[in-house]
Structure formats: C-alpha cells, structure tokens
Amino acid sequence: MGRATVRKVFLVGLVVWVVGAVLVALSTRSGQVQNAGVYDAGLLLVGIGAVIELISWIVALVASASLGRWGWFFVVLVLGLIGGFIPIMVTYPFVGPTRRHTAPQRPMATTG
C-alpha cells in the first residue's frame, strides 16, 4: 500500500461522492424533492463515496505507520480528525512518504 493506492482509492471515492451530490442537487428544486428515486440514489452514492474516502484515509495511515514515518502518520491523523481531510488527502499522494525512515549513521569511534 503506497501513495498510488491512496490516490486511486481517494479519487474513486471523490468521484462517487460528487456524482451523488450532483444527483441530489438536480433532484431538488426550491428545497423540495422533485424525483424521490434520483434523490435517494444520490444520497446512496454520497454515502458510498464518503465511506470509500474514509477507507483511503485509513490506507494512508496504515502506509505511513508501516513505513515508520510517524510524523506523517500524526499529520494525516490529526488533519483528518479536525476537518482538514480533503487538503491532506490531496497532498499525501504527491508528497507523502515512499521509503522507510532510516536513522542517520554515526561514525564509529576508533580506538587508538
């Protein structure tokens, strides 16, 4: 699970969510539902899209944790919880971690 997986899952969820939101908007006029079937389908798609986006967020958390990139893990976690979900999920697939964090090697002291 890497950045590409997070990107694909998030984009699928976002597209499903937007299609559902458009259906809901098109089926209402003046605050009243004109076509209940289209409205219900739109609400269903909005819910499915939201669940898929939640899954992409969890995948991003698991990927960051498995790479040992705890800074990224906490940024994704905190921003996702406080309402910065969309910005972090748009940013993570492009600049998120790809390699395991390695501690810098210290030169060994020579004994003379």
Q: Which range does the strand content fall in? A: under 5%
Side by side, the strands of the main sheet go 1-2
Low-confidence regions: none
Whole-Å distance between the termini?
48 Å
Please compute the radius of gyration using only Cα atoms: 21 Å
The oligomeric status of these chains comes to single chain
**Whole-number total of structural domains:** 1
| Tally of helical runs | 4
Shape by Cα distribution: rod-shaped
Question: How would you explain this protein's 3D organization?
Answer:
The model has no long low-confidence stretch (mean pLDDT 86). The protein has one domain. Helix content is 71%, strand content 4%. The protein is built from 4 helices and 2 strands; from the N terminus they run H-E-E-H-H-H. It has helices at residues 3-26, 36-66, 70-82, 85-95, and strands at 28-29, 32-33. The longest helix has 31 residues, at 36-66. The chain has a two-stranded antiparallel ribbon. Helix 1 (3-26) packs antiparallel against helix 4. The chain is mostly helical.
